[in-house]
Amino acid sequence: MERRRSAEDERRVEVFLTDAGTALSTRASAIPQRLADAAGLSPAELEQLRETLGRLTAALHASR
Q1: 3-state DSSP assignment of residue 50
Q2: N or C terminus: which one in the chain shows less Cβ crowding within 10 Å?
Q3: So what's the pLDDT on residue 17?
Q4: 50-62 pLDDT tens trace
Q5: Does pLDDT of 36 surpass 90?
Q6: How far is CA 28 from CA 1, 11, 33, 46, 53, in A?
Q7: To 5 degrees, how large is the angle CA 7–CA 21–CA 39?
Q8: What single DSSP character describes residue 42?
Q9: Where are any strands of DSSP class E within the chain?
Q10: How far is residue 32's CA from residue 55's CA, in Å, rounded to a whole number?
Q11: CA angle, 45 as apex, 42 and 47 as ends, to 5°?
């Protein structure tokens, strides 16, 4: 990441990805599909799992 002061407003700092960060972002974008493939679940099963985990997370946060 690279931070630069805004040309319009010196109080603002803008954040940009470096070339290395952009390359890493590109590589990382394949991770969700690779995990789904490794899990061997259908798209419907993955969606159900995502919803279930969301409900579990909400319940755990609510029980604090």
Answers
A1: helix
A2: C
A3: 94
A4: 999 999 999 999 9
A5: no
A6: 16, 32, 10, 19, 22
A7: 140
A8: -
A9: 2-5, 13-16
A10: 20
A11: 110
User: Which pair of structure tokens corresponds to residue 42?
Assistant: 């259908």
Per the rule left: phi > 0, alpha: psi between -120 and 50, beta: everything else, 55 is: alpha
Q: Which residues of 20-52 are buried (b: 16+ CB within 10 A; e: fewer)?
A: eeeeeeeeeeeeeeeeeeeeeeeeeeeeeeeee
pLDDT (tens digit per residue) in 7-33? 999 999 999 999 999 999 999 999 988
Backbone angles phi, psi at 41, to 5 degrees: -100, 150
Which pair of structure tokens corresponds to residue 28? 């990382």
Instruction: List Cβ neighbours of 25 (8 Å cut-off, separation of 6 or more).
Output: 17
